[in-house]
Design goal:
single chain; FAD/NAD(P)-binding domain; 7-stranded mixed β-sheet; 18 helices; 35% helix
């Protein structure tokens, strides 16, 4: 079986790379260990009694550049949300909240002022206006070779470079914002997927990746769920002649002269190039090399199907509160304390969390019958719940964390969340929790790390040679998954860049 390129892993990045390569006439095979393609971006009928297809593992779409959709002529669409976030809070015994619209107007300004005084919104606006200068500079470079540090700094040309690129983000937040809750809402973009203190530069790297998508950082809802993207990529790749082979777990990868030999339990494939779209740790195991060290994955994910959205004690319409990202117990002090407790091996007393309602923006993931009855989905992420907490007794810790999160959420609700769940035929409530350990077992994310390994800054140091950020120590072997530089965030960027590296090598 001879090919120009063999791709290991049929997640969205592997499929995107295959489409770019097949478009120019290369013979491509994609090998997938699981029974179906999609990796972390699959949509599944999580609750068998109900016709609802949830994005079981992944979040929303932010980083995928519009150019990829255009290049591959994809009709897959994402939908913007008018509400950016809502965060309930209790002040002097009163239930209030911070409402932030995507395009802030008088309602958002009033919300900041009521919560934290006249200076709160100008401080927020000034910070994000400055951060926008980084997004504007970085976004056009993500489908090009890595810019150098000096080149990118000159492009930003603003003191915000030092605040975000050079010193831990906690310093900036403590200097710019007086309010504990506002500090925390900003910091959360530095923590989804990253187990870090605010005074560790790792949080900065995560923050950058959450804010640079298409130059706006807007997290958009995928129409039809993530499965819609996978389905279209599969069709596109098949139409272009890509061979997609599921149930083909790669067992060895060896170099013979100038040819790669990729073996599964039943087959052997020869190719000039290999793209690794699974985790670098998986590749190291296949090749018998030393795997990269990385932080533990640090979040639990709870998928829910509800018969109704719960009412809130603050009085806000649930259709507004859950329309964007719903934060709870994500004050700066909450985040810092939860990190310290988790790092010490203890489930946090208060687990910071955030959630969103896919169906308020796109109800196509539900059947007509469920839509007519007012059903909704909710997806919850618990932060600072690293894989190490689950090692001793995963079942017990999952139960403890679930109970804590629901109790914390209920503090802000009129309707306890347990009373809102759909009920299966066997009497069970329709929710499931996925631990970092399950993310590793089910979709190959090492220790549940959604970025595969620690994120890197989106540039190269001045003394380093130009690169696509996908190269390995081996010739004609490239990283095409989240473990590449600029790889995380359901972006397709590493798939594109690995394909470009192949084409460059071919001249």
């Amino acid at each position: 079986m001879k090919y120009d390129v063999v791709i290991i892993g049929a997640g969205h990045n592997g499929l995107i790379a295959s489409c770019y390569l097949a478009k120019v006439g290369l013979k491509v095979a994609v090998l997938e260990a699981n029974q179906s393609a999609g990796g972390a971006t699959v949509s599944q009928q999580v609750f068998p009694d109900f016709d609802a297809r949830l994005s079981r593992y992944s979040y929303l779409v932010s980083l995928m550049p519009d150019q990829i959709f255009s290049d591959l002529e994809l009709s897959f669409t994402t939908i913007g949300r008018t509400v950016s976030s809502y965060t309930p809070e209790v002040i002097d015994g009163n239930d209030v909240g911070l409402l932030v619209h995507r395009q802030p107007g008088s309602e958002t300004i009033s919300s900041f002022t009521s919560l934290a005084g006249e200076s709160a919104f100008p401080a927020w606006q000034n910070f994000y206006d400055s951060v926008q200068k980084i997004a504007t500079a970085v976004a056009p470079t993500v489908l090009q070779k890595l810019p150098s540090r000096s080149e990118l700094k000159a492009q930003v040309n603003d003191p915000i470079w030092d605040e975000i690129m050079e010193v831990p983000i906690g310093q900036s937040l403590e200097a710019r914002f007086a309010d504990d809750l506002i500090r925390g809402v900003v910091l959360t973009d530095g923590l989804i997927g990253t187990f870090s203190d605010a005074h560790d530069i790792a949080a900065n790297r995560c923050f950058i990746y959450h804010l640079i998508g298409n130059g706006t950082g807007e997290w958009r809802v995928p129409r039809g769920g993530m499965g819609g993207l996978v389905a279209e990529l599969l069709q596109k790749a098949t139409d272009l002649g890509v061979e997609i082979l599921t149930n083909h777990e790669v067992t060895s990868l060896t170099r013979e002269s100038d040819t790669w030999a990729t073996s599964t339990a039943t087959s052997k494939f020869e190719s000039r190039f290999v793209l690794n779209a699974c985790a670098p740790q998986v590749l190291a195991k296949i090749m018998g090399t030393t795997p990269p060290k990385s932080l533990d994955g640090s979040q639990v994910k709870i998928n829910m199907l509800l018969t109704k959205l719960p009412r809130l004690k603050s009085g806000i319409d649930p259709a507004i509160a859950f329309a964007g990202t719903f934060h709870f117990d994500e004050r700066y002090s909450d985040l810092q304390l939860a990190y310290a407790q988790s790092a010490a091996g203890k489930v946090p007393d208060r687990i910071p969390a955030e959630m969103y309602c896919h169906t308020l923006t796109d109800n196509s993931i539900l059947s007509d019958e469920l839509n007519a009855q007012g059903y909704h989905t909710l997806t919850l992420f618990g932060i600072h719940t690293p894989a190490s907490l689950f090692d001793a007794n995963e079942v017990a810790v999952k139960k403890e964390i679930t109970e804590k999160l629901f109790a914390q959420l209920n503090r802000y609700l009129i309707d306890p969340i347990e009373q809102c769940f759909a009920v299966a035929k066997d009497g069970s409530l329709c929710f499931e929790i996925k631990s970092p350990l399950e993310l590793e077992k089910e979709i190959g994310l090492p220790r549940g790390n959604i970025f595969h390994k620690d994120l890197a800054m989106p540039f190269r140091e001045d003394h380093e040679a130009p690169s696509w950020g996908v190269e390995t120590e081996f010739p004609d072997l490239f990283i095409a998954g989240a473990g590449a530089i600029r790889g995380g965030g359901v972006s397709g960027i590493p798939g594109h860049n690995a394909a470009r590296a192949v084409l460059e090598a071919l001249g």
